[in-house]
């Protein structure tokens, strides 16, 4: 059972950051995973009054507030066009619409959960996170860091040319993914992220030379095999490491061909 001793609706990011420095205090976010825990929280910090629930478009990027819901990401026309539907595909299996109306992008990225579809896709999109104290950091670097008591305020998605595709395998429609992958095919190369390994998502370069002649079923399979060989996998109740490795080859190949067909 979750026990909260004190609730504070922060009036500024400075106040939220100061409160967050105490280990027993917690930022609420969407409060979906938090309420499943058995713990006592001294102070629950609510960010909902700080204007972090908007998606801003600039000529070069989309700047997404940490309190934007996954449902808002799913339905945003600009983000859908930028990712050719991959963003909506990455979140549509997450529990249900009611859940996605509450779950936030900030919570998904700050948690850096191994099962996170959002982290997997945003890594391939070359995203950056904005931290109140730590400044702007590439998501790939942030994901590799240990947890720190900072406030994640925004995530920035650059408007990069190219095609994007997302693929995942689940044992049932709304379950956590057994494996997830995102591929961004750019004029200057390819970017591939593999998540739910079951460890948190990570970027893998594969062997770009294998795609030098273009994406075909044969070159896509060779590149996918290289990624599957590079990636590290583990076992849990959903699948074993060897199964995930074989699945990785299939999903990366499918994502590459989807980018080519697009």
Low-pLDDT residue intervals, each spanning 5 or more residues: none
The major beta sheet can be summarized as:
5 strands, antiparallel
Provide the succession of SSEs. Answer: EHEEEEHHHHHHEEHEEEEEHH
Number of extended strands: 12
Separation, N- and C-terminal Cα atoms: 47 Å
Structural class: alpha+beta
- The helical percent reads 25-40%
Question: Which strand-content bin applies to the residues?
Answer: 25-35%
- How large is the radius of gyration? 19 Å
Mean of residue pLDDT values:
92
Count of DSSP-assigned helices: 10
Output the strand order for the largest sheet. 4-5-8-6-7
Shape: globular
Can you tell me about this structure?
With 262 residues, the chain is α+β, with helices and mostly antiparallel strands. Helix content is 33%, strand content 26%. It comes from Candidatus Gemmiger excrementipullorum.
Nutshell version of this structure?
With 262 residues, the protein is α+β, with helices and mostly antiparallel strands. 33% of the residues lie in helices and 26% in strands. The chain has helices spanning 13-20, 70-75, 77-82, 86-91, 97-100, 105-111, 117-124, 139-144, 217-230, 241-261; strands at 2-9, 26-27, 39-46, 55-57, 61-65, 128-131, 135-138, 152-158, 163-170, 177-186, 189-195, 202-204.
């Amino acid at each position: 059972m979750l026990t909260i001793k004190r609730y504070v609706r922060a009036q500024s990011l400075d106040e939220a950051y100061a409160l967050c420095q105490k280990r027993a205090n917690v930022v609420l976010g969407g409060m979906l995973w938090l309420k499943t825990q058995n713990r006592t929280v001294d102070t629950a910090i609510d960010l909902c009054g700080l204007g972090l629930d908007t998606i801003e478009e600039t000529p070069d990027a989309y700047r997404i507030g940490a309190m934007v819901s996954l449902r808002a990401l799913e339905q945003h026309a600009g983000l859908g066009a930028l990712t050719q539907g991959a963003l909506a595909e990455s979140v549509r299996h997450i529990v249900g619409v009611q859940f996605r109306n509450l779950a936030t992008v900030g919570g998904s990225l700050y948690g850096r959960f191994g099962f996170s579809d959002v982290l997997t896709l945003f890594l391939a999109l070359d995203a950056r996170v904005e931290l109140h104290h730590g400044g702007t950091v590439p998501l790939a670097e942030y994901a590799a860091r240990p947890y720190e008591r900072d406030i994640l305020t925004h995530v920035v998605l650059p408007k990069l040319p190219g095609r994007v595709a997302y693929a995942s395998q689940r044992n049932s429609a709304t379950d956590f993914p057994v494996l997830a992958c995102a591929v961004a095919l750019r004029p200057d190369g390819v970017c591939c992220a593999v998540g739910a390994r079951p460890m948190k998502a990570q970027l893998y370069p594969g062997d770009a030379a294998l795609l030098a002649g273009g994406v075909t079923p044969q070159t896509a399979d060779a590149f996918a095999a290289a990624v599957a060989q590079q990636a590290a996998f583990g076992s849990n109740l959903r699948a074993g490491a060897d199964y995930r490795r074989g699945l990785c080859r299939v999903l990366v190949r499918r994502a590459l061909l989807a980018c080519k067909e697009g």
